[in-house]
Amino acid sequence: xxxxxxxxxxxxxxxxxxxxxxxxxxxxxxxxxxxxxxxxxxxxxxxxxxxxxxxxxxxxxxxxxxxxxxxxxxxxxxxxxxxxxxxxxxxxxxxxxxxxxxxxxxxxxxxxxxxxxxxxxxxxxxxxxxxxxxxxxxxxxxxxxxxxxxxxxxxxxxxxxxxxxxxxxxxxxxxxxxxxxxxxxxxxxxxxxxxxxxxxxxxxxxxxxxxxxxxx
Length: 216
What we know:
Layout: H1 8-26, H2 31-42, H3 46-73, H4 76-103, H5 120-132, H6 135-149, H7 156-181, H8 189-211
Helix pairs in contact: 1-6, 1-7, 2-3, 2-5, 2-7, 3-5, 3-6, 3-7, 4-6, 4-8
Pfam families: LysE
InterPro entries: LeuE-type (IPR001123)
Organism: Paracidovorax wautersii
């Protein structure tokens, strides 16, 4: 195996580095996490959502480790526009969340257009948009996590990617479980409105946090 030239300690260290770095970023509440939580509470296509999130995280981290992090890191202009796009995306998501909280009929259950009628393709398409069209995702996975993983020696880079994917799998399984446990709470439409209100606040704070670097 390609890991045979490395000690078990080195392999474990690289795996743990990928796991901890990825998990530390995943636990911050973002648009993707909240969408998966909403689907878990509604009980719709949760397994497909978890698979999508884990696979997309693994691929984006692998791209970063393979060299995209170095490319993006060497282009301050591109990094600037990624930050700007990420701030605008998060701000827009916050506006939509507040719109659902205040104006959607029937609370969050009807907020995204008859959730009960949405098939797996519709749910995954929305999740893909939230994941891939959010520039902040690339700053986290490709640039930050990828640049750390790229420092690993040889084949240990891919052990790092496996560690990151393991953290993603654990986190989204926990998120799905939490959503299932909270299903009774969210039977009340008011709970959805509260969640959307808090989501809006968190998105605005994240937008400010990402955008402030543009003016430093």
